[in-house]
């Protein structure tokens, strides 16, 4: 279902749906763009290309408690998650959440992710690509499903895709703001918009044939050259919408048998990640870790699911201080040369 | 009731000791020794960029970390001709108020009070003075919070930098501080009342000099560009060397200072003696009520001075936070030259702290740091010696002498990483 | 045929796959100087019934306040009730496990992993090659095939240890030698006791004593230290056992056991759900492992 | 469970770590309840030396007298834990470790005057002299990291400290990267545990937790050089806190292929 909404009505709409839960959206403070809890549309920056951390932080916080325990056993800590409406997420991030859903909601469903996912409504928003966006190369620049509502900004008005029954419920909270009256001009407008968006990309990204190119170039020294530059800082994994690795530790309370089992974001770029007891490390060399990361994103996942585990959001491009990212790695492998 | 938090605060000491050498009834020597290992920080920062120096020098002392940071910033900003924005200045003032309350509350209530009340430690006071111990902890916790909000963390915060702050406290944080500061004023006043109610023994009384930084605009404050010497006399902070001729003594890794061959005192006492009349509000009234000529001779009054000062600091906070909140967050000011020299003088809780720098082509060539405890050491020895002599003449025994001397040493609030309270008597 | 395989529906019984259930340690005693035998019984009977597993599967074991780690089940599902493990003391969690007394509890969840493909192995000859701690999962397989003796062809069990003192389940295996429906060959690298009744030498030397095997009809299961794999694989390939009938278990760091934490991933395979049992053919495709001992020589 | 006997000792440093222990207002009661604090001279005067289960040692070692004391503590303690970056790595006073020049610097401060208290030498971390079971770094230590480790010890469990760099925590806090702006940040070289306080205040990490397990000092060096920093300045910035640990690492910095080319 696609509806139409006047742009000036958005604020009122968000004000209404806030009744259902906390409103979250992209905010800017200097260089920092982040999804934060807001009170009104005016606090959001809908023009920003991307937040530093993707919306995964709301579904899967950097560190949280899984269980409380005492000497009787473990009791899961769930149930304290508020309802949230996440406004302003872009198609790439919704694709990212879909990949996370596959990870966490299918076989062995993760109750922590599931709870937050269940309580978070996704209200997408169209975006203006910048020079780092490469969703055109991963086929994630548009989105057809996975959201509750999706707002496409066509300058004069919004086209609003209703993607779920819960999205529809939101519409029903303020039906007078929406119309079904879509005419020929609107369709033309939308076609123009798609063309315009497609013409905006400038990143030099091309992932075609990646699985084979990876296979062929796996042992090439090009990857060693890149790895020599890698700081092992792990920023790339923290900002990637499809990175889901975690570590688990137990904490105990001082002088007591009680404690918590906590879980926090880990990174395959860290040495400890593949370290096993006795000191053996399956990926002691930085290049082995780099290979794991990039085979996972650009090869293995394609082999398994037919699409890369990269949604083209450009975060690794915007984050890695030494320019190691899906684009530079793919190009280096293809051209057998580390680009400038 | 279970309020055991005070236990560890019973005694704070550093690595060192006081040695009193007696020969019959005569005092041969009183020395305050510092065994704390040497760190040579001034030498280490040579060749460093100023921005790196301000990370390193606060590590001289965990209790006065912000004073070191501020003194270094002042010295280096002068050297590099940086004029920090007003909001930065105000926020620095606030952070200094925080450090002042933290240190003064700890020292008055938890370290000195047991001495005056005749308890071995603050924990021992719990039964009879439990409320006071709780007051102390309240004040200290709040002051730590002020330091954390302004400087980034409780100890060695890196938020204050050259030309300004990395991040300014939020309006919400500021208004919370204002509110809490108002609530806590009575706790500070109570300390004043307690210390004003004691009899101060005459044994340690000796005339001495007092030095303190002269706060600008005829106000009471904790930083400035000139130094006041025993009221009246004023010297530019850049001439700090004339005020504090430093020397090394064989029994200590801490250097000593004197002024014109005579000892002098710095600290709350000195600040109030030199500038106390400028204080307004409740603290001003308290000062007028309790100040007397005996303050000029007897270091034990330092505790009373600290309590009054703590009241002042709390009273300042609401206005300080309002001013900060009213301003937009400015960018940090950049250096306008890369060669120059400057001396930063601030009032650390225990007295004047100097950081002098000479910078050449963007690198530090000379760093000279003079800590308040170093300046006080001679004065501590002078007063202890006088006290010991008089008490011995009066036929007092070692068991009375020892605590009396400890009490004097502690009254100066010697910084824990440079000096201590432990007294040993050595009979020849 | 009895269905032992843990299927999806069973898994969903556990609504929080990370949640350990409490089990009581009923016995714990040393097998060697750094390996202990643990026997555990579920505190909750239903839980014990749910714990139907395959040889080669593992559980995640928790000690309160210390953490969690994967351990192969050493007992056989053909003797239900108690779970058995043999655990080597190598790090933090294992050290704390060794400090637990009988009757104290541990948290267990599982079983996880694919286990050995029992269905496919039925009717075939079975060749088991164990080295060191590799005997932990292989004991489960061995006991299972022996308990279901009529459903398998010839069975050979080859086991190497460094010294007699370091051989896990030494007495148990020596006793198995008595059986004439099993070719049980035991060897030690070095006999430091002078009392060792069996062979001295490498596991690979035992292959000489196997006699002729019907390679195409044989499933080989191998588990042991990395160096052993290298040589044993060469032998097995030389014997002409098809590479997809050579089974090996891989070990990786694990934090969840259910394919979420990422640590055990090798390319797109997760050791915890796609493994830990892999065929040699699978492993030959793992680029990460090529050139790292396991498979290099065979490719060359 | 009998409560472990604990001692807390301070050597050359700022006493900040002991102060942080005292600043754990809310947990102090528990700490004193769950353990038997035999010696903690900064906190109390009735100190009993003797056998210890755990000795916490703050500060670097820089005089003969301290060294004797340290060895004595080691002898009495089942477990010795270095707390704070000075004890773990040497701290700021060890930043010139392995560069020589101690005598000169000593004279620069004390001139030729004789100090009889004890003989001084260049400050070094505790593990340069005795075995250390665990390092809890930080300048000063972080309350929760410290208490987390102590709670585990009291419960007879193994403490777990983050082994990855500050950058991880920095990203958890969603800060823009300072290196990206072309400015120095020691985050990638520094062990996490502080919560990335400095980058969260828009200030670069100065490295006060000391080096982390896994870092690429060469890569950071090259990156900063590309951004216009001079070689000496980079090394100096890296060495501010990490003392012995970083001194070893900077030796590994090798010229890049490009530099080698240029030098030819
Ligand atoms: C499928 C599988 C089956 C195993 N079966 C057995 C067995 O039957 N007996 C036995 O003694 N050991 C077995 N191991 C190895 C065992 O898991 C490790 O020895 C154990 O994790 C060491 O934990 P630790 O806390 O003592 O070591 P530490 O070095 O302190 O490790 C800390 C944590 O890292 C992880 N970790 C470290 N080493 C390993 C490793 N080798 N594998 C997986 N995670 C690791 C764990 O989460 C562990 O708790 C098995 C491993 C796997 C993957
Ligand atoms: S690839 Fe870049 S972001 Fe990732 S760990 Fe290496 S340096 Fe850090
Ligand atoms: S700002 Fe510093 S700590 Fe944060 S990610 Fe960048 S390099 Fe790491
Ligand atoms: S960010 Fe770096 S400098 Fe700041 S506290 Fe953490 S470790 Fe220390």
Structural class of chain D: alpha/beta
**What's the SSE pattern of chain A?**
EHEEHEEEHHEHEEHEHHHHEEHHH
Which strands sit side by side, in order, in the main sheet of chain A? 3-2-6-7-8-9-1-10
Which stretches of chain D are low in confidence, meaning pLDDT under 50 for 5 or more residues running? none
- In total, how many domains does the architecture of chain A comprise? 2
The CATH superfamily of the largest domain in chain D is identified as NADH:ubiquinone oxidoreductase-like, 20kDa subunit
Tell me what the structure shows.
- The complex is a heterotetramer of chains A (340), B (428), C (300) and D (264).
- By secondary structure, chain A is of the alpha+beta class.
- Helix content of chain A is 36%, strand content 21%.
- Chain A has an eight-stranded mixed beta sheet.
- Chain B has a four-stranded mixed beta sheet with strand order 8-7-5-11. In chain B, strands 6-12-13-14 form a four-stranded antiparallel beta sheet.
- In chain B, strand 1 and strand 2 form a beta hairpin.
- Chain C has a domain of 102 residues: Translation factors (Elongation Factor Tu (Ef-tu), domain 3).
- The N terminus and C terminus of chain C are likely disordered.
- At the B-D interface, helix 1, helix 2 and helix 5 of B face helix 1, helix 2, strand 4, helix 5 and helix 8 of D.
Provide a brief overview of the structure.
The complex is a heterotetramer of chains A (340), B (428), C (300) and D (264). With 428 residues, chain B is of the alpha+beta class.
Question: How does the SSE layout of this entry go?
Answer:
The complex is a heterotetramer of chains A (340), B (428), C (300) and D (264).
Chain A: E1 2-6, H1 10-17, E2 22-29, E3 32-38, H2 56-59, E4 63-70, E5 73-76, E6 84-89, H3 91-105, H4 111-118, E7 120-125, H5 135-138, E8 149-153, E9 157-162, H6 165-173, E10 178-179, H7 184-199, H8 210-217, H9 221-229, H10 235-239, E11 246-252, E12 259-265, H11 286-305, H12 315-319, H13 326-335
Parallel strand pairs in A: 2-6, 6-7, 7-8
Antiparallel strand pairs in A: 1-9, 1-10, 2-3, 4-5, 4-12, 8-9, 11-12
Chain B: E1 16-23, E2 26-34, H1 41-44, H2 50-56, H3 65-79, H4 86-117, H5 122-151, E3 160-161, E4 164-165, H6 171-196, E5 209-214, E6 223-224, E7 226-229, E8 233-236, H7 240-243, E9 245-247, E10 256-258, E11 264-265, H8 268-275, H9 281-290, H10 302-326, E12 340-348, E13 351-360, E14 363-370, H11 372-393, H12 398-411, E15 423-427
Parallel strand pairs in B: 1-15, 5-11
Antiparallel strand pairs in B: 1-2, 3-4, 5-7, 6-12, 7-8, 9-10, 12-13, 13-14
Chain C: H1 8-13, E1 21-32, E2 35-42, H2 45-50, E3 58-63, E4 67-72, E5 83-88, H3 92-98, E6 105-112, H4 118-121, E7 125-131, H5 135-147, E8 155-161, H6 170-176, E9 183-188, E10 199-200, H7 203-206, E11 218-223, H8 226-238, E12 246-249, E13 265-266, E14 269-270, E15 277-279, H9 280-284, H10 296-299
Parallel strand pairs in C: 7-8, 7-11, 8-9, 9-10, 11-12
Antiparallel strand pairs in C: 1-2, 1-6, 2-5, 3-4, 3-6, 12-15, 13-14
The complex binds flavin-adenine dinucleotide and iron/sulfur cluster (3 copies).
Residues 58, 67-72, 85-88, 90-94, 133, 136, 251-255, 276 of chain C line the site of flavin-adenine dinucleotide.
């Amino acid at each position: 279902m696609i509806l139409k909404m006047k742009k000036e009505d958005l604020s009122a709409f968000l004000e209404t749906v806030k009744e259902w839960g906390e409103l979250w959206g992209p905010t800017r403070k200097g260089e920092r763009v982040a999804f934060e809890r807001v009170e009104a549309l005016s606090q959001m920056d809908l023009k920003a290309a991307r937040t530093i951390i993707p919306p995964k932080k709301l579904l899967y916080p950097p560190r949280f408690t899984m269980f409380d325990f005492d000497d009787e056993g473990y009791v899961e800590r769930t149930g304290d998650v508020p309802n949230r409406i996440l406004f302003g997420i872009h198609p790439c991030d919704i694709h990212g959440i879909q990949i996370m859903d596959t990870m966490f909601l299918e076989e062995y469903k993760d109750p922590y992710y599931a709870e937050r996912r269940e309580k978070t409504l996704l209200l997408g928003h169209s975006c203006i690509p910048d020079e780092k966006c490469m969703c055109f190369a991963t086929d994630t620049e548009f989105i057809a499903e996975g959201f509750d509502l999706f707002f496409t900004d066509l300058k004069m008005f919004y086209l609003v895709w209703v993607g779920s029954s819960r999205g529809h419920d939101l519409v029903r909270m303020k039906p007078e703001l929406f119309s079904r009256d879509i005419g020929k001009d609107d369709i033309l407008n939308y076609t123009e918009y798609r063309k315009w968006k497609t013409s905006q990309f400038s990143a030099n990204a091309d992932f075609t044939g990646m699985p084979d190119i990876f296979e062929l170039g796996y042992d090439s020294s090009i990857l060693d050259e890149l790895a020599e530059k890698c700081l092992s800082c792990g920023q790339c994994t923290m900002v990637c919408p499809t990175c889901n690795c975690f570590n688990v530790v137990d904490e105990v309370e001082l002088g007591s048998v009680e404690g918590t089992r906590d879980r926090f974001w880990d990174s395959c770029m860290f040495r400890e990640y593949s370290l096993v007891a006795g000191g053996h490390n399956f990926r002691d060399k930085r290049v082995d870790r780099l290979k794991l990361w990039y085979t996972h994103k650009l090869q293995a996942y394609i082999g398994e699911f037919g699409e890369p585990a990269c949604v083209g959001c450009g975060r690794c491009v915007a984050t890695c201080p030494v320019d190691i990212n899906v684009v530079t790695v793919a190009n280096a492998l293809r051209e057998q040369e580390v680009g400038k | 009731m279970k309020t055991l938090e005070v236990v560890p605060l019973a005694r704070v000491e550093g690595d060192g000791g006081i040695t009193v050498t007696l020969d019959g009834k005569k005092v041969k020597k009183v020395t305050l020794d510092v065994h704390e290992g040497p760190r040579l920080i001034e030498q280490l920062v040579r060749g460093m960029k100023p921005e790196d120096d301000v990370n390193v020098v606060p590590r001289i002392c965990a209790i006065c970390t912000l004073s070191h940071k501020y003194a270094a910033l002042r010295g280096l900003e002068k050297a590099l001709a940086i004029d920090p924005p007003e909001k930065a200045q105000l926020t620095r003032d606030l952070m200094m108020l925080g450090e002042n309350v933290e240190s003064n509350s700890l020292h008055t209530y938890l370290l000195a009070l047991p001495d005056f009340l005749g308890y071995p430690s603050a924990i021992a006071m719990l039964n009879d003075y439990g409320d006071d111990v709780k007051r102390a902890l309240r004040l200290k916790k709040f002051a730590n919070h002020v330091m954390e909000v302004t400087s980034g963390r409780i100890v060695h915060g890196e938020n204050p930098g050259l030309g300004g702050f990395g991040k300014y406290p939020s309006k919400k944080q500021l208004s919370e501080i204002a509110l809490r500061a108002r609530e806590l004023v009575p706790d500070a006043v109570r300390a004043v009342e307690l210390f004003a109610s004691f009899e101060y023994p005459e044994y340690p009384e000796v005339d001495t000099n007092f030095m303190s930084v002269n706060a600008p605009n005829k106000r009471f404050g904790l930083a400035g560009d000139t130094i006041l010497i025993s009221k009246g006399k004023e010297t530019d902070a850049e001439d700090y060397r004339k005020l504090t001729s430093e020397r090394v003594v064989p029994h200590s890794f801490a250097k000593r200072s004197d002024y014109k061959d005579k000892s002098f005192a710095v600290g709350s006492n000195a600040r109030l003696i030199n500038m106390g009349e400028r204080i307004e509000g409740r603290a001003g009234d308290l000062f007028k009520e309790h100040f007397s000529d005996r303050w000029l001779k007897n270091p034990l009054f330092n505790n009373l001075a600290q309590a009054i000062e703590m009241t002042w600091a709390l009273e300042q906070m609401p206005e300080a936070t309002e001013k900060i909140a009213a301003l937009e967050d400015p960018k940090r000011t950049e250096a306008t030259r890369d060669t120059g020299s400057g001396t930063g003088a601030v009032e650390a809780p225990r007295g004047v702290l100097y950081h002098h720098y000479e910078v050449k082509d963007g690198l530090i060539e000379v760093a000279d740091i003079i800590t308040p405890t170093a300046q006080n050491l001679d004065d501590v020895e002078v007063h202890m010696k006088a006290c010991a002599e008089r008490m011995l003449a009066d036929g007092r025994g070692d068991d009375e002498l020892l605590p009396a001397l400890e009490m004097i040493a502690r009254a100066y609030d010697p910084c824990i990483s440079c000096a201590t309270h432990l007294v040993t008597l050595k009979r020849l | 045929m009895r269905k032992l395989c843990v299927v999806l529906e069973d898994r969903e019984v556990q609504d929080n796959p990370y949640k350990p259930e409490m089990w009581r340690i009923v016995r714990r005693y040393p097998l060697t100087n750094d390996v202990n035998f643990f026997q555990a019984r579920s505190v909750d009977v239903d839980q014990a019934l749910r714990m139907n597993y395959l040889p080669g599967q593992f559980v995640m074991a928790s000690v309160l306040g210390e953490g969690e780690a994967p351990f192969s089940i050493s007992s056989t599902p053909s003797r239900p009730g108690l779970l058995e493990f043999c655990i080597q003391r190598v790090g933090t969690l294992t050290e704390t496990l060794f400090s637990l007394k009988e009757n104290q509890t541990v948290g267990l969840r599982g079983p996880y992993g694919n286990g050995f493909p029992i269905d496919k192995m039925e009717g075939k000859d079975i060749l088991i090659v164990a080295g060191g701690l590799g005997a932990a999962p292989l004991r489960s397989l061995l006991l299972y095939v022996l308990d279901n003796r009529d459903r398998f062809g010839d069975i050979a069990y080859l086991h190497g240890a460094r010294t007699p003192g370091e051989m896990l389940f030494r007495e148990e295996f020596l006793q198995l030698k008595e059986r004439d429906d099993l070719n049980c060959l035991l060897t030690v690298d070095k006999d430091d006791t002078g009392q060792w009744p069996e062979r001295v030498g490498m596991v690979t030397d035992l292959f000489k004593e196997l006699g002729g095997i019907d390679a195409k009809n044989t499933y080989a299961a191998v588990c042991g230290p990395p160096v052993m794999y290298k040589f044993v694989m060469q032998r097995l390939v030389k014997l002409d056992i098809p590479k997809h009938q050579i089974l090996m278990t891989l070990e990786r760091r694990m934090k969840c056991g259910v394919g979420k934490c990422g640590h055990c991933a090798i390319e797109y395979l997760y050791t915890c759900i796609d493994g830990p049992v892999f065929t040699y053919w699978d492993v030959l495709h793992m680029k990460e492992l090529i050139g790292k001992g396991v498979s290099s020589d065979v490719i060359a | 469970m009998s409560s472990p006997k604990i001692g807390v000792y301070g050597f050359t440093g700022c006493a900040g770590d002991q102060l942080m222990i005292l600043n754990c207002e809310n947990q102090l009661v528990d700490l004193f309840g769950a353990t038997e604090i035999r010696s903690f001279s900064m906190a109390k005067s009735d100190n009993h030396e003797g056998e210890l289960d755990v000795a916490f040692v703050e500060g670097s070692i820089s005089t003969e007298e301290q060294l004797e004391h340290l060895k004595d503590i080691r002898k009495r303690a089942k477990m010795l834990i270095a707390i704070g970056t000075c004890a773990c790595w040497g701290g700021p006073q060890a930043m010139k470790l392995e560069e020589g020049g101690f005598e000169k610097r000593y004279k620069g401060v004390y001139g030729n005057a004789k100090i009889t208290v004890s003989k001084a030498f260049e400050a070094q971390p505790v593990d340069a002299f005795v075995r250390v079971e665990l390092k809890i770094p930080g300048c000063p230590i972080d309350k929760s990291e410290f208490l987390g480790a102590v709670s585990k010890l009291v419960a007879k469990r193994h403490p777990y400290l983050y082994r990855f760099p500050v950058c991880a925590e920095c990203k958890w806090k969603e800060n823009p990267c300072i290196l990206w702006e072309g400015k120095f940040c020691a985050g990638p070289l520094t062990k996490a545990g502080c919560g990335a306080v400095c980058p969260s205040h828009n200030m670069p990490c100065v490295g006060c937790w000391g080096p982390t397990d896994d870092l690429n000092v060469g890569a950071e060096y090259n990156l900063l050089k590309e951004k216009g920093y001079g070689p000496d300045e980079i090394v100096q910035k890296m060495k501010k806190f990490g003392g012995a640990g970083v001194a070893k690492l900077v030796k590994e910095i090798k010229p890049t292929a490009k530099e080698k080319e240029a030098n030819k």
